[in-house]
Amino acid sequence: MSTWELTNIAARLVLPPGGLILLALLGLAVARTRARLGTGLALASLVALYALSIPVVSTNLLRSLETPYSDPATHSAPGAIVVLGGGLEASAPEYGGDSVSSGTLVRLRYAARLQRRTGKPILVTGGNPASVSITEGEQMKNALREFGASAKWMESASNNTFENAKFSRQMLKKAGVQSVYLVTHAWHMPRAQMAFERAGLHVVPAPTGYHTVSPMMLLDFVPNAHSLGDSYLFFHEVLGAVWYRLKFDLGR
Fold first, then answer.
1. Residue 70 located in a structural domain
2. One domain, residues 60 and 80
């Protein structure tokens, strides 16, 4: 079992819903000897699960990570555009094999638009932690062509955002590039920007995939799996940012 897989297993056991399920199980176990405490733990887990599963909570959690949009093309032009991988789909039947995920496509689409506006070369970065047939970087490079864009550099050794930054910096340093447009989801930008700046690159944020707000409805208080997934992303980003700060402070 790889380090990447172990790390993700641990994250899923700690973050919602995994952590809340474990809390509920602990409450049920404790209830045998301490009914009041056990019931309280189980009830707290249920309430938290409901709250994190409704759009009015999950959307606002992710929006708290997003900074107001500022057109990156109006800033002094960096030397390159870096696009971070956002996952892949293994054995997609309609494409005859592995393909990039919908989240990655959102980033690639915006990177292609930015390239048309700025004329800057693109670096795609994404490794192969799941051991599929084609690295994410190569899949991203291929998918970019569908948006009428091309990648000059491809980084395919990284397994996470920390390594995206480290390995992209090494590649761009050889090309004399010190400043980049960084393309990723708006909720992921704070952690990604920190990683790339700590790696030694000047970053002009180029976020995409913002969470927009529509008029509140009763439906916003009805739980659903998508909202629970958004809450998972929020806690993943917060804990990931703390972990990255520790890693940088320790000089790793």
1. no
2. no
Is there a domain that residue 213 lies in? Answer: no
Tokens of 111: 């990177």
Residues, the chain: 252
Whole-number Å distance between alpha carbons of 132 and 102 = 17
Whether 111 and 28 share a structural domain: no
Condensed to tens digits (0 to 9), the pLDDT of residues 110-147 reads: 999 999 999 999 999 999 988 888 899 999 999 999 99
Look at 212 and 126; give whichever has higher pLDDT. Answer: 126
Tell whether 81 and 52 lie within a shared domain.
no
What pLDDT score does 252 carry?
59
> Tens digit of pLDDT for each residue in 74-117?
887 899 999 999 998 888 898 888 889 999 999 999 999 999 99
Assess whether 22 and 59 both reside in one domain: yes
Token pair 């494409």: residue: 95
Q: Provide the CB-side half-sphere exposure for 79 (13 A, CA).
A: 13
At 73, the amino acid letter reads A
Type of residue numbered 106: V
The separation between the first and the last C-alpha atoms of the chain, rounded to the nearest angstrom, is 23
